């Protein structure tokens, strides 16, 4: 599985001109599922996201000359009681090496990908709280809005 993790101040998903999901402080995730991904990849990704320390600790000084408010990289999404907005993104596995049209053969087929994606959301909700994890609409054309915090943006693949 491949994920783009964006620490955000707020994020939302709009489908057919209606906002269907929105969060405040936390992560906006773009999640791609490949033809090789399994439940082990789902568990690995969910565990990593829940433990990853991308937020500052306001109880400690920054100890840097930057304008951090608190010491950076100290708290997880769980620690800050943040929110997650996850958006399925099959285009993360696009291959553009040949020609001018993307090739999506490495992306999992929708009916198989949705099973792994739903399991991923379930694990995040178990770790963070049912009301703290929102998602887009699987397979829909979505407008995704984001106020990136930092900016902090990390790309990770469970196979690397």
Comma- or semicolon-separated keywords:
single chain; 160 residues; 20% helix
Brief rundown of the structure:
20% of the residues lie in helices and 39% in strands. It has helices at 39-51, 110-128; strands spanning 2-15, 18-23, 26-32, 53-57, 71-76, 83-88, 133-135, 143-157.
Q: What structural class do the secondary elements suggest?
A: alpha/beta
Strand content: 35-45%
Whole-angstrom Rg: 16 Å
**Uncertain stretches:** none
Write the SSE topology:
Elements: E1 2-15, E2 18-23, E3 26-32, H1 39-51, E4 53-57, E5 71-76, E6 83-88, H2 110-128, E7 133-135, E8 143-157
Parallel strand pairs: 3-6, 6-7
Antiparallel strand pairs: 1-2, 1-3, 1-8, 4-5
Helix pairs in contact: 1-2
Report what the structure shows.
This protein has 160 residues and is of the alpha/beta class. It is built from 2 helices and 8 strands. Strands 1, 2, 3, 6, 7 and 8 form a 6-stranded mixed beta sheet that branches. Strands 4-5 form a two-stranded antiparallel sheet. Strand 1 (2-15) and strand 2 form a beta hairpin. Helix 1 runs parallel beside helix 2 (110-128). The chain is globular. The model has no long low-confidence stretch (mean pLDDT 94).
């Amino acid at each position: 599985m491949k994920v783009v993790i964006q620490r955000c101040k707020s994020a939302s998903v709009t489908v057919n001109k209606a906002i269907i999901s929105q969060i405040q402080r936390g992560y906006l995730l773009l999640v791609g599922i490949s033809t090789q991904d399994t439940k082990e990849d789902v568990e690995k990704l969910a565990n990593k996201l829940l433990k990853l320390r991308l937020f500052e600790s306001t109880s400690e000084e920054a100890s840097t000359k930057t304008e951090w408010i608190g010491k950076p990289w100290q708290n997880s999404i769980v620690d800050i009681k943040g929110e997650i907005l996850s958006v399925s993104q099959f285009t993360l596995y696009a291959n553009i090496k040949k020609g001018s049209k993307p090739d999506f053969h490495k992306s999992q087929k929708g009916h198989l990908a949705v099973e792994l994606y739903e399991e991923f959301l379930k694990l995040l909700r178990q770790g963070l709280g049912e009301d703290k994890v929102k998602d887009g609409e699987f397979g829909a054309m979505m407008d995704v809005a984001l106020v990136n915090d930092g900016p902090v943006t990390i790309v990770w693949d469970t196979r690397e």
